[in-house]
Amino acid sequence: MSQRKSVYIAYTGGTIGMAAGDRGYLPRPGFLGAQMARFSVLKDARMPRYDLHEYDNLLDSSNMTPRDWMVIAEDLTRNYDRYDGFVVLHGTDTMAYSASALSFLLRDLGKPVIFTGSQVPLFELRTDARENLINSILLAGDCGVPEVCLLVRHRLLRGNRSTKVSASRFMAFDSPNYHELASVGVETVVHRERHLRHPENPMTLHGLNDPQVADVRLFPGITPKILEQLLSGPLQGAVLHTYGVGNAPDDPSFLRILRDACDRGLVIVNCTQCLEGSVDMSGYATGNALADAGVISGWDMTPEAALTKLYWLLSQDLSVEDMRRLMQQDLRGELTVGS
Ligand code: ASP
After folding, report:
1. CA 15 to centroid of ligand 1, rounded, Å
2. Shortest CA distance to 42 belongs to which of 156, 131, 149?
3. Residues linked to residue 217 through DSSP beta bridges, in sequence order
4. Contact 298/268 with Cβ under 8 angstroms?
5. Secondary structure, 3-state, 207-264
6. How far apart are CA 222 and CA 232, in angstroms?
7. Are 299 and 335 in contact (CB under 8 A)?
8. Which residues pair with 107 in a beta bridge?
9. Which of 48, 125, 176, 269 is deepest in the core (most CB within 10 A)?
10. Where in the chain is CATH 3.40.50.1170?
11. Is the shortest distance between the CB of 119 and ligand 1 below 6 Å?
């Protein structure tokens, strides 16, 4: 008989384990563990064995910072050798950021790390939490996908390709520019040809220091002065959310501010505001002007992947040229060059 698989569950906070309070749902220590202990299906012999680690400081994920990504990465690294797979229970609001960040922090990952959460807490009668929890534990034990993933309902998505698309539907996430990694139905189909290759080296944690990064979303009416203020100060990098295939106003004073920022060594990454599709700065004169100013292409990266990749690259000991080159390369399946 094959040995029962083992899964490490990190509970960081989020709706999935919240209790009802006077001012709405909030995380309460011990509450999720007590709910799970009453949940008989989790004791079924066909389920992997699990250990639940509840974090001391349970967070609504709106309060998460890059420091919290490091806490999760360090926790998983400490426990890496002892388990077949990992589930990270996390608030859905910033889950796509954390999953993207972990995909860069954990290099040569050889086991599944599955982020999941829910729109309604586990204790409620009608909830998405039960399905997400069971499917995540099963997949973490068995699927062998060597990636940071995000599970929502019947879809296992690549973490750094996922984004939250609904504040209320149970199907809260999508992966607009990459196929799902596994689909859960009557049968669970694991799409091996879509996964990253199994690493040859042992997993290592490549952490973050404290880079200064900004997210700048263009809008009709943004003035050169506003842009200048947004890109001023000790900033080292920015994600520029542009229109369509990567276009921005080609007003010379606007472009001069971008050029000056790039000349100061800022890494400015062009990501489209569109949910689906890719940046192609050669498509229009307005996009070409951005490339001439020194802005680099984020291709089809989600804004979450671009921002967390920027944090991560700025934390490594790299020249600005190398950061710009790596930013435009596929490192963890986060982008399709020339897509
Ligand atoms: N505000 C919650 C959080 O992100 C929402 C959720 O978990 O769905 O922590």
Report:
1. 5
2. 131
3. 241
4. no
5. CCCCCCEEEEECCCCCCHHHHHHHCCCCCCEEEEEEECCCECCCCHHHHHHHHHHHHC
6. 15
7. yes
8. 204
9. 269
10. 6-205
11. yes
The CA distance from 339 to 177, in Å, is 9
| CATH 3.40.50.40 residue spans of the chain | 213-327
Amino acid in position 18: M
**Residue with the two structure tokens 């309604």:** 120
Say whether 163 is catalytic.
Answer: no
Residue 19 has which token pair?
Answer: 């209790």
Which atom of ligand 1 lies nearest, measured to the CA of 118? 8
Q: In testing the pocket of ligand 1, which one of 16, 63, 92, 132 has its CB within 8 Å of the most ligand atoms?
A: 92
Q: What is the pLDDT of residues 67-90, one digit of tens each?
A: 999 999 999 999 999 999 999 999
User: pLDDT truncated to tens, each residue of the chain (339 aa)?
Assistant: 568 999 999 999 999 999 999 999 989 999 999 999 999 999 999 999 999 999 999 999 999 999 999 999 999 999 999 999 999 999 999 999 999 999 999 999 999 999 999 999 999 999 999 999 999 999 999 999 999 999 999 999 999 999 999 999 999 999 999 999 999 999 999 999 999 999 999 999 999 999 999 999 999 999 999 999 999 989 999 999 999 999 999 999 999 999 999 999 999 999 999 999 999 988 888 888 999 999 999 999 999 999 999 999 999 999 999 999 999 999 999 999 876
- Topology given in CATH for the domain delimited by 6-205: Rossmann fold (3.40.50)
Spatial separation of the C-alpha atoms in residues 174 and 157, rounded to whole Å? 8
Gap from CA of 329 to ligand 1 centroid (Å): 32
**307 contacts 97 by C-beta, under 8 angstroms:** yes
Q: Tokens for 321, please give them.
A: 């040229």
Looking at domain 213-327, its CATH architecture is: 3-Layer(aba) Sandwich (3.40)
State how far the Cα of 269 lies from the Cα of 286, in Å rounded to an integer.
15
